[in-house]
Specification:
Length: 113
């Protein structure tokens, strides 16, 4: 029997060893909302799927259908996802993202520009 999307969310949360409260807080929704999603009392919408994917590095295809790996497993997959998301942003937000990445690299001492 295939898992529903709600069951995959529960499975993911348990794999991450997180409580409903911790999981909900990480994606900025209430723990009651997560509980209702996991119990299939609420429908999982694309916004929630997107938040979970971005926050935890989860493969959206796995979350929606159960196909593929739960997590993006290779740096290439992560980079491809990042480029796709970056390209969806308006140019002014792309500039902001670039500044944030550069600041993070400066903080860690890894910027070689």
């Amino acid at each position: 029997m295939d898992m529903t999307i709600s069951k995959r969310i529960r499975h993911l949360r348990q794999t991450l060893n997180m409580s409903q409260v911790e999981f909900a807080k990480a994606i900025y929704i209430s723990n009651g909302y997560i509980a209702e999603l996991e119990c299939e009392h609420r429908r999982v919408n694309n916004r929630i799927i997107h938040l979970i994917s971005l926050t935890f590095g989860v493969n959206e295809k796995w979350l929606k259908t159960g196909e593929g790996d739960m997590f993006f497993s290779t740096p290439g997959e992560k980079l491809q996802r990042m480029v796709t998301l970056f390209n969806e942003l308006p140019p002014k937000f792309q500039d902001y993202v670039m500044q944030q990445i550069e600041q993070l690299l400066n903080v860690t001492g890894n910027l070689s520009v």
